[in-house]
Specification:
By secondary structure, the chain is mainly alpha-helical. The chain has one domain. The protein contains 5 helices and 2 strands, in the order αβαααβα. The protein has a two-stranded antiparallel sheet with strand order 1-2. The longest helix is centred in the middle third of the chain and has 25 residues. The radius of gyration is 15 Å and the shape is globular.
Length: about 120
């Protein structure tokens, strides 16, 4: 159940990102749901490989290159999925940062991680 709620919250976060960040456009809520899945899959599959190969530059930039990797993934999904558009890499980096913050805030508000125990 938490996975379904998190998926919906990520789609809502993506719609909010499209409202706040210029250069990002989401055609519909269904597109936002698909984009949320693809962003999640990219973060699970492609991101670890990119982090491995860019480890030296990440160390040199004191970890700031991770923002570029996240932006590249966001930008890549925007070019792969029709209806979800990310105009530039800069918009992708900013969008990925805003998306992460909004997703985290929504999850912190809506999803309760504490298990209720009956004493």
């Amino acid at each position: 159940m938490k996975l379904l709620i998190a998926w919906i919250l990520n789609a809502v976060a993506l719609l909010l990102v499209a409202t706040f960040v210029p250069g990002i456009h989401v055609a519909s809520y269904v597109t936002a749901m698909l984009a949320a899945v693809l962003i999640g899959l990219a973060n699970i599959t492609i991101k670890p490989v990119l982090k491995f190969f860019t480890f030296p530059i990440t160390i040199i930039t004191l970890g700031l290159f991770i923002f570029v990797i996240n932006g590249l993934l966001f930008y890549g999904v925007g070019h792969f999925l029709q209806g979800f558009e990310v105009a530039t890499l800069k918009a992708g980096i900013i969008g990925a940062i805003v998306y992460s913050v909004i997703s985290w805030l929504l999850a912190a508000i809506v999803i309760d991680d504490k298990e209720e125990k009956d004493d």
